[in-house]
Amino acid sequence: MPPTTIDSLQNPRIKRIRGLAQKRQRDREGLFVLEGERELERGLASGVQATQVCLCPELFKHDEASEVLHQSLLQGTAPVVYLSRKVFEHVSYRENPDGFLATCKTFEKRLEDLVLSRNPMLLVLEAVEKPGNLGTILRTADATAVDAIILNDPATDLFNPNVIRASAGVVFAVPVVVASSEETLNFLKTKGIQTLATTPAAEDLYHQVSLEKPTALLMGSEKDGLSDFWIQRADRQIRMPMLGQADSLNVSTSTAIVLYEALRQRWLN
Fold first, then answer.
1. Whole-model pTM?
2. Which architecture, in CATH terms, is 5-105?
3. Can you tell me whether residue 160 is helix, strand or coil?
4. Average pLDDT in the 186-209 region?
């Protein structure tokens, strides 16, 4: 049976998709929206489970990759519906949608689920507020082979559409766990992983410490930085040199600087 076409903004399925823009609705239904050709392809390849696929061929790029994904989705297990351009642009979170969107099941990982490498690099993010920053950090973590990200007191959730978009679809490539600070500290101690807290008050610059051994980089919120819990309990404190008037960098920028320094040190040795 060919997919049906929806051309009414009042269709219940359309209203439901729109509702998933809100965290409360995502939590209630256990669903989130995965939008974009690249994001959908990467998400499904990472094991994300789609419950419904919405397509608008009029918005496709009409290249080989989009047609391959189109046919793959038609042959998949999730039901497919076509949306008119007006309806797709209504449910889309983007200014220039590409015609690919799906509702998918949310999922949750625990600390005990993490499978770490022999010399792991982990990232602990405390109360990061802006979805764009979290998504950008996820993208950097994927590029620098971070084993896992642990979120303490998250102020935004992994399934926020802006997190997914800013991550360029790699949001599902790096394991992400939500845990309390105490749980995280106990986990890292048990695994013998050193903890490095980033703070402007640190004496050591980030490149002056060894990042070659098992390490967890601790990054705080955009507004307040790391809490006293981590400042007081971290094995060492590090900072970025600031030679101008600004006293701090964007959290995603700071994270990228240290992660690439870790990659540099590990590659050299």
1. 0.92
2. 2-Layer Sandwich (3.30)
3. coil
4. 97
